Amino acid sequence: MRHVIDQAAAWQRSGTRFAIATVVRTWGSSPHGPGASMLVSEGGRVVGSVSAGCVEAEVCAIAEDVLAGAAPVLERWGIGDEDAFAVGLTCGGTIEVLVREVGANVPLGRIAADVEAGVPVALVTPVDGRGCLVVGRGGVSGSLGDPSTDRAAALAAEGMLARGANGLVAGGDGAIDGAACAPERELLVQSFASRPRLLIFGAAEVARPLADVGATLGYRVTVCDARPAFVTDERFPRADDVVAERPDRWFRAHEDLVDAATAVCVLSHDPRFDVPVLALALRSRAGYVGAMGSRRTHEDRMARLRTAGATDAELARLRSPIGLDLGGHGPEETAVSILAEIVAVRRGGTALPLTLRTGPVHAT
Fold it and tell me: Is 290 helix (H, G, I), strand (E, B) or coil?
């Protein structure tokens, strides 16, 4: 969603009219979950996706009607065996998409700025298109028409933002703790959280493609190494932060930034640097902690970490040797194996070939 909200804010600043289509509900297997969005400008430019190509042409046609003055549209697409070649989802699932024009009243600039600053923020827009509400650490701005609806919507948005959730809520359904809200108005809540962090300690050769691909996947990338000659903007042009510092010192100073979406990769091969930062990372909230090295290096590292006070539960979190067994060679393919493991851990994937699994390809 980051590139979508940035483009929407840019179009709004330039005065370009556009519609936004957002997945609000899914059933069965679907390419994208609630919150996935696609922009369609008045000039026909498209940014983002709601179905990985299955129904985008149909969505564009609806967006053109909305930009021509039609009311917001809530449309549902699915597919069955009997209409396999009709417009629909070839994956067999069903999605519901809201298409509406976004006007100047929606503070997209604030939302984009909050996301860039790492501040979680939620946008609440009614399906009927009347009004909007922005909820975040900076408070609540905007209105949906009356104070009781605004209070209910703010409660709903706060709860969903805490979970990073997106979707529709309705008055009196328990999703907003029974607060007063007009029951005929369904509200779309879109949560915009900060980018997940990829912390790379050790500017080894594999760190270069790891930083590049991590940035492509939407991570905020930090590369840290105690050797100034190895951490330069020229070596890591796509990293957000390139730091010459002892990894453990940097981690201790920035531990408040580490959360369950953070991935820590230790690539230094030097116990003087990797053991202290790993000891901190394994005690932190980081959702993924991995370290590079051979089996022998791993056993030595585990002994050193135990000596440093790491518990069995903490050591069980360590992904070492780092990455999935893809049979790859070289820095680039090694980086792919590392990021594949990070994605599998973060998303709850099995890391098995899909041909060995049964059931839906996409999680519901």
Answer: strand
